[in-house]
Write a structure and sequence with these properties.
Blueprint lengths: L1 H23 L17 E3 L15 E4 L5 E3 L4 E9 L2 E7 L4 E6 L1 E3 L6 E2 L4 E5 L9 E8 L2 E3 L40
């Protein structure tokens, strides 16, 4: 019975997490910026565990060199700046109730300090759990971990125009892509 109840609670919490994120993610005029310069290179994707104590990955790992400047993704206040389990961690509380985390870092801001979106708040240090240097970037709503990439604006798909075909409809030989090798001379 306990297993069934825990399974039901987990199912409900994972089903409600996207709804919590959609209510909490900044929309409208509040700027949201990348923690690192574009393009972001994901080393490991968000892979939440099926239960609170199961294996999973509660954030995303972004490739970056040691010494990279990390930016606040939105305006907020420094929730924590210091060591956790021997690793430098920075946690920012956003006004919408979310908390975003960065590790391994050397924080450049102090606990309680107000930060603006895009402000350099930390420097990436060694000690990540990736094969190479990377930033582990997390997002929490209360105690529930969410996908931090959901904070970033979705890219706008753009269609590129097809290359113009300068040849008249009947004469395809003017288009080099339309030429096919044929039998040689005579």
């Amino acid at each position: 019975m306990t297993t069934l109840l825990l399974g039901l609670l987990l199912t409900l919490s994972t089903a409600l997490a996207p709804a919590a994120l959609s209510r909490a993610v900044p929309s409208g005029p509040a700027p949201v910026v990348r923690p690192l310069p574009a393009p972001l290179s994901v080393v490991r994707w968000w892979d939440p565990p099926p239960t609170p104590y199961a294996a999973g990955h509660c954030g995303v790992d972004l490739a970056a060199p040691v010494g990279a400047e990390l930016r606040a993704v939105a305006a907020g206040r420094v929730h924590h700046a210091g060591q956790v389990a021997g690793r430098g961690v920075l946690s920012l509380a956003l006004p919408n109730g979310l908390r975003t985390t960065y590790e391994p870092v050397r924080p450049l801001v102090a606990e309680g300090e107000r930060v603006e979106a895009g402000q350099v708040v930390a420097v990436l240090t060694e000690g990540s759990h990736c094969p190479g240097p990377c930033l582990h970037w997390g997002l929490l709503a209360g105690e529930a971990y969410l996908n931090p990439l959901a904070l970033l604006p979705r890219p706008t798909p753009r269609l590129l125009p097809a290359a113009a075909d300068p040849a008249p409809a009947g004469d395809r030989t003017a288009n080099p892509d339309a030429r096919r090798p044929g039998p040689g001379p005579g």
